[in-house]
Amino acid sequence: MSGKEFFLHRYEKLGWKPSDIKLKQAIRINPTNAPNLEETVERLQSRGIKLEKISFLEKGYWVSKAKLSAGATTEYLLGMYSIQEAAAQIPVSLFTDLEGKVVLDACAAPGGKTVQLADLMHNSGVIIALDVEKSKLIALANHLERCHVKNTVVYQMDARHVAELGIKFGRILLDVPCSGNFAADSSWFARRSLKDIEANAALQREILAKAAVSLRDDGEIVYATCSLEPEENEMNVDWAVRNLRLQVEEIECYGEKGLTEIFGQKLHRSVENCRRIWPGQTQGFFVCKFRKRDEP
Amino acid sequence: MKTIADFARQFDAKLMLRRDLVVKKNNRYFLVDEKLKPFVSNNFYFAGTYLGKVKKNKFFPSFELLRMIAEKGKANKITINDRTEWLFICGRDVFGKSIVKVEGSAKKGAHTLVMNRYSDCLGFGKILREPSREVAGVAVKNVSDIGDFLRRERKNS
Prior knowledge:
The structure holds two protein chains of two kinds. By secondary structure, chain A is of the alpha/beta class. Chain A is built from nine helices and 15 strands. Chain A has helices at 4-13, 37-47, 74-77, 90-93, 112-120, 134-146, 188-191, 194-213, 234-243, and strands spanning 26-29, 49-53, 60-66, 81-83, 102-105, 126-131, 152-156, 169-175, 215-225, 246-248, 256-257, 261-262, 265-266, 275-277, 285-292. In chain B, the strands form two sheets. In chain B, strands 7-11-10-9-6-8 form a six-stranded mixed sheet. Chain B is globular. Chain B has two domains: 2-69, no CATH class; 76-152, Roll (Archaeosine Trna-guanine Transglycosylase, Chain: A, domain 4), CATH 2.30.130.10. Chain B is an alpha+beta fold. The chains are: A alpha/beta, B alpha+beta. The A-B interface holds A 43, 71-72, 74, 77-78, 102, 124-126, 128, 135, 137-142, 144-146, 148, 150-156, 165, 167 and B 32-33, 35-36, 39-41, 43-50, 62-64, 67, 85-86, 89, 116, 118, 120, 122, 146-147, 149-150, 152-153, 156.
């Protein structure tokens, strides 16, 4: 089961019809390296990069006009900002009290969210960043160096093996590998099938289960995908609530409530606390915040 | 450690790093703090602040190390004009006429940090002749610049 029609029909059954998808480039200013937001915005405008504040993000800006690539300015190279999709800036912002914590970024490369974590932690505490592929680790290390991140240790490791580190984390970011979505990938419909999606959903559940074991009691997990498929999103959250010591927390952020009925299947009511972002100005995204429950 | 201190000395700067907080992975050096150190085990890939690497007996500094040296008040520095900033980042040498300020030694053969008007460190170079606006031709040879991040991105993509 695959193809454009198949997937569009599924989205329609979930209550969404694609229209007016115009992805806009976004940046996130890194306050650690650019403490004066206004000055940084002016500096970029003097270079010919016109920015517009993103209403639902604290440090996010749309690139509304650019005479040159936003990835080729002195300020970018000095780590004053990162090019980061607007919806992708949401997950890290959902954690509470990050400063001084021991944080796991389980699928970290290319590092946009790792840098955002370090920023919100003011380079305090510890981030353990994992990724499997060596080439992705090179990109991650470059990103950390460019943005002057000082509180991170990177390991080449599959997130499912995190227990081998013997660390209990207070906060865990699971920006899990996912099927992506068609808004950000023109060949998506041709490449993806329901079988892929189910395989990715199974991998995501394995990562969630292992992460939950390495999470301290009362610790937080933020789970995110850029997939539109419910198997990787609401259905995985439903599975986690029923099988792991995790509860879904209420969050306030951009997006629609998580779906609690998928193709006739009723999910745990707390799943509506998640946020689903259908593509529009941003790419599609899904985010959920869990807290570890006390032992029964 | 000596490698890093010797490198800083080329800018007439003294950099004192705690030996127990510098960790080495193959040919790469990192600076960690006391909180981070217990989390660094043998198989780490990157930790704390990357300081640089040694290749064929030559030390290649990170841009964070250059920034640390720049923060030492006495290090050799030149400030270049806005027009030259991007040219330097693209790997070009610095002409005398592009230099707006010189701090520290301007001795031929010495190393100097290259700064922009906001005091951001853009890289470093080797002084070929007295760096001043009056000198015609190349005054500072580009050795390393932050454009390297772009070059690495391209190489890695």
